[in-house]
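Re-run with default settings, no changes from the original entry. Doing this only to confirm the output is reproducible before filing.
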Amino acid sequence: MRTALLLIFSLFVLTTTAQSASEVAAFDKDYKFELYRPYPAEYRDTKFTPAPKGYKPFYMSHLSRHGSRWHSGTKSYTYPLNILLTADKAGELTELGKRYLADLKIIVADAENRDGELSQVGFEQHRSVAERMVENYPTIFRKNCYIDCRSTIVPRCILSMASAVRQISKMVPTSRIRMESSDDNTYLKAYAGLNSVKQDARGLSDSLHFAYMPDLEPFLNRIFTKPQDIDHKQFAHYSFLMGGILGSTPIAEVKDLDYLFTEEERAAMWRASNIRRYALTGPSKPFGKVIISGVYPLVENIITTADRAIANGDEQATLRFAHDVTVIPLAALLGIKCANTVTDDWANVGYKWRINEVTPMGANIQMVFYRSKKCDDILIKVLHNEREQLLDSAVATPVESVYYRWEDIKSYLLAQIK
């Protein structure tokens, strides 16, 4: 299967036109951060559509990615560092290469013993999102409200949950909050679908990633005084990641690494990396259905907890803290339009699906439930990163504006996971 897919993509890869830097920047001025994009400040100023007459929010079902963090694993740091150290010892670094090495030493020292840990930037992201949830939905986060919070056992998720809970407790001192971090919450992992196709998906995604990279010779010539016996594409990849992580783990001595790539090179590096992320974790035509199946247990949990809250009113919010590989497939399944593109037109993925938009650090999906004393229909609106969503028409038809019948959404979801 992997070989066949690689043959198919190779027929098209050489005939495509790349997105320019101006086109990429038009979608997101901070695209250089890619998967590590800090939660965007502009998401904090969302204006909400009034609910249908007589309806008030009473329950929230929520999923979030952990906040900003250091890179997971040391290879992201040590791979480019070791190459630069070797070249420096041989006297084969340009002045720019020496600058990169000096900056990288500072970055690596800052990351020491912080493998994948939540940064203060990430802690603040979840604090501020929680603050706005309380402000925006006072009938949910009310006196004596009960909130059930769950996270994976990964420390950055636990601390993201703790940050949100701390803020809610501060604003609603009488709130009753249950927190749990357990391997028993298997529905938060969403790895089953991804793992079942991981070998084929990784093979294709890596091949696409390298195929769509720009000509690296100018980049390498700016760093080294003579050709190096190294994997040029891996070196460029990890160098791109180094610049991307600085938004999540800012360092006073190293403002950025923008000097490594030209704007067009950086846009091409983003494009190649975005295609890789999409093929590996997104709703792509070859693997998307299987990957999305990984969140079926989460969907069952969402339905069960929502129906319980509707029936007895004992729970006002269910907050879940997990990872990008949980947010990405759920956003696709819910029909969030920036997240549900299904294609194998790799060259044009970036026009419709962008990893930094689908799941920046601290990404969240809020499903807000409304009820009326005069009508039995429960309504729901879906927010992605605090922005109201008009869902894909295949999911359901809104009753009014961005408000949908819960029964319609539930029926759609049950049909998908059966």
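The mean pLDDT is 94. The radius of gyration is 22 Å.
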